[in-house]
Amino acid sequence: MSKIDDEVRMTFSGIADVLIPAAEGMPAASSVGVANEQNLDRILGLRPDLSEAFFRGIERAKGQAPATAAEDLNREDSAALAAIGLIASSAYYMAAVVKDLIGYPGQESRAFDADAVPEYVSNGMLKVVQDRGPIFRKTPKAQTA
C-alpha cells in the first residue's frame, strides 16, 4: 500500500470534485472532507482491495488538472477511476452534512418481534396468492449414470 500524503489527498480531492461537484444545494466532495483521515484513510482500511487501483490512478493523475486527469483515467484506466469514484462517493455519503441534506439518519436499530405476524400477512396482501393455491411444476426425476 502506498503512503497517503498531502499530494495524494490534494489529487484525490480534485478528482472527487470533478466526480461530485457542488450542485443543486449539495456541496462538492472536497468541501465535506472526502480526502481527510477520517474518510480516505478509513475507507482504504476497510476496502484494501481498492488500494492498488486507487494509488495507480492517483499516481497517473498527479500534476494534471483534475478534469483532464479524470478524462484520461476514464479513457486509459477505467478501473482506477472506478476505485477513486467509489472511495469518493463512499466518503461523501458518510459525511454528516450530506446525510442531513438528503434526509438519511444513518443506520438505526429497530426492534424485531419474531412472534409478531408480519404486516404483509395481516393486511391481505397475500390473499390473492393464498386463494390461488399452490402452483408448481414437478421436477423431472434425476437420471442415474
Number of strands: 0
What value does the Rg take, in angstroms? 24 Å
Low-pLDDT segments, ≥5 res: none
Category from helices, strands and their pairing: mainly alpha
Based on Cα principal axes, name the global outline.
elongated
H/E element sequence: HHHHHHHH
Beta strand %: under 5%
Provide the helix percentage.
55-70%
Largest sheet: none
Question: How would you sum up this structure, described in words?
Answer:
- There is one protein chain.
- The protein is built from 8 helices and no strands.
- The chain has 145 residues and is mostly helical.
- The chain has a domain at 6-102.
- Helix 1 packs across helix 5 (78-94).
- The longest helix has 17 residues, at 78-94.
- It is elongated, with a radius of gyration of 24 Å.
- The termini are far apart.
- The mean pLDDT is 93.
Features:
mainly alpha; 55% helix; elongated
Topology (SSEs and partners):
Elements: H1 6-19, H2 37-46, H3 51-61, H4 66-76, H5 78-94, H6 96-102, H7 119-122, H8 127-132
Helix pairs in contact: 1-4, 1-5, 2-5, 3-5, 4-5
Short description:
The chain is mainly alpha-helical. 55% of the residues lie in helices and 0% in strands.
